[in-house]
Design brief:
Elements: H1 4-27, H2 34-46, H3 52-63, H4 70-80, H5 114-131, H6 134-148, H7 162-169, H8 175-182, H9 190-223, H10 225-232, H11 247-275, H12 282-289, E1 310-316, H13 322-335, E2 342-347, E3 351-353, H14 364-374, H15 386-396, E4 405-410, H16 422-431, E5 434-439, H17 453-456, E6 461-464, H18 468-477
Parallel strand pairs: 1-2, 1-4, 4-5, 5-6
Antiparallel strand pairs: 2-3
């Protein structure tokens, strides 16, 4: 039995470790309050600390609020709560995965038996995938990283790479053999084959994830958890920078933008409802005044029919803000469900109405492609020219803005040193009911170089909007 002093030191070390983990989760963009941190400490007293999956799910239950946060959480959990600091022996000889009897990492680089080793391990991987034992697949992944994933040693330690393992074992090429092993002669085609294919894909994906996890664990032991976490954890959907969003991020962004569009519509409608009352109902006011000696202490108004607000969107679709334009067009598509009239206009150095590309059910990616090929948004050299774009809009579409219209401008405000036409924008803002400009650049860059954002900000409400989180904050304060 450990001494009381030793026991308290162990508990203190565990509490400090948990505190570091909670800080890492918070830095990854997952909001964790003090009460949740206290609940996480309580979890350590009620779960079996030797059961990693029980601990994983227990901490997730108190630290996470949305399912989209789980991938980032799992990466951090594997870094802070690794399966083992030293892998188990790889075979009956008792040789450690980390190397020979001395425990030193095996040296990287080519070995004479690399081809034979890869073939033997590939055969073993096939057997394990066929059996489907998750624990065995995980242990095999650790051996594979040790034997096949090492690179050339560096002064800072041994490096490991998941792509080396995948290149040596090529698990995706085993699908046909695995299907043959899982299906009987008469099971080809139909539901049985679909189920078998799904099972094979899940097992291969589990192996790949196990390899990635082991590589991260080994890298973290060499370079530190905090450093690895910064590169290993992908930003949450609401923190993805619009200017750097990739095609793989668009689906998640679309799911994030849709509820924000609803909230934006509600906010704009609420402002209009609060800002104006219906016409005075003289008869009801006089009738009510009889109870106060003919003094109209309380006035009554006729119910005003609240219409959904109209919206005009001016969107910069030049190459410098390509990622942001995808987001803005997604927002435009989502807003169409909540506004009676949404008119979308795109511009580079000329302006064209692109509302026709956003019919109900239209795909945003297809709309972006059609805007690039069919819309008249380029008149000269294809570089952003906000001044000319505003002039074309005022000349061709001046009637689009009126006292019932909300104007939303989306772009970085970089004019390529061309006239900014600030007075023209000011007149558009005066004619509209409300006007806002969402800028994907950090506020500290406004007015630098060819940016006219600082000047535009003098006549319109200019808001930094680099990700969905900032969009939500803008809607909240609207």
């Amino acid at each position: 039995m450990s001494a009381p002093g030793t026991r308290s030191q162990e508990l203190g070390g565990l509490a400090g470790h948990l505190d570091g983990f909670v800080r890492a989760v918070r830095e990854a963009g997952i909001p964790v309050g003090i009460s949740q941190a206290v609940d996480a400490a309580e979890i350590l007293t009620v779960v079996d600390l030797l059961d990693r999956e029980q601990l994983r799910h227990g901490l997730a239950a108190v630290l996470l609020q949305r399912g989209a946060q789980r991938p980032a959480y799992d990466v951090l959990f594997d870094l802070w709560w690794p399966l083992s600091d030293r892998p188990a022996p790889t075979d009956d000889s008792g040789e450690s995965e980390e190397g020979a009897e001395g425990g030193e990492p095996r040296q990287g680089g080519p070995r004479p038996d690399d081809a034979a080793l890869a073939k033997a391990m590939r055969d073993e991987l096939f057997r394990l995938l066929l059996e489907g034992d998750e624990d065995e697949i995980g242990r095999f992944a650790r051996r594979a990283v040790d034997r096949l994933g090492s690179g050339q040693p560096s002064p800072t330690g041994q490096s490991y790479f998941s792509y080396r393992v995948m290149r040596a074992l090529s698990p995706d090429t085993l699908i046909a053999q695995l299907l043959a092993g899982l299906l009987a002669e008469g099971d080809r085609g139909g539901l049985n084959e679909q189920v078998a294919r799904q099972t094979v894909r899940e097992r291969i994906e589990a192996f790949k994830n196990a390899v990635e996890t082991e590589v991260r664990r080994r890298t973290a032991s060499e370079k530190g958890r905090e450093r690895v976490a910064k590169n290993a954890v992908r930003p949450l959907a609401d923190q993805i920078d619009f200017l750097r969003a990739q095609s793989s991020d668009l689906a998640e962004l679309r799911r994030t933008v849709a509820p924000l569009a609803r909230r934006l519509a509600v906010r704009l409608s609420a402002r209009r409802k609060i800002g104006r009352q219906g016409r005075l109902d003289f008869r009801k006011t006089v009738r009510a005044s009889l109870g106060t000696g003919g003094v109209p202490v309380v006035t009554h108004h006729r119910p005003r029919k609240v219409h959904k607000p109209e919206l005009v969107v001016l969107c910069d679709v030049s190459g410098s803000v390509a990622g942001f334009s995808h987001f803005t067009l997604m927002l435009t598509q989502a807003l169409r469900e909540h506004f009676t009239g949404v008119r979308a206009f795109a511009f580079v150095d000329s302006t064209d109405e692109v509302t026709r590309f956003f019919s109900p059910g239209a795909d945003v990616a297809d709309a972006v492609r059609r805007i690039g090929t069919e819309a008249q948004v380029v008149a000269f050299d294809g570089h952003s020219d906000y001044g000319t774009a505003f002039e074309v809009f005022a000349d061709k579409y001046a009637s689009a803005i009126g006292p019932k219209t909300s104007l939303l401008v989306l772009g970085d405000g970089r004019t390529n040193y061309r006239p900014a036409a600030v007075p023209l924008l000011a007149s558009m803002v005066r004619r509209s009911r409300s006007a806002h400009w969402l800028n994907p650049e950090p506020e500290r860059q406004w007015g630098t170089g060819d940016s006219a954002a600082d000047r535009y900000g003098e006549v319109i409400d200019m808001v930094e909007c680099r990700n969905a989180s900032q969009l939500a904050e803008f809607i909240t304060t609207l």
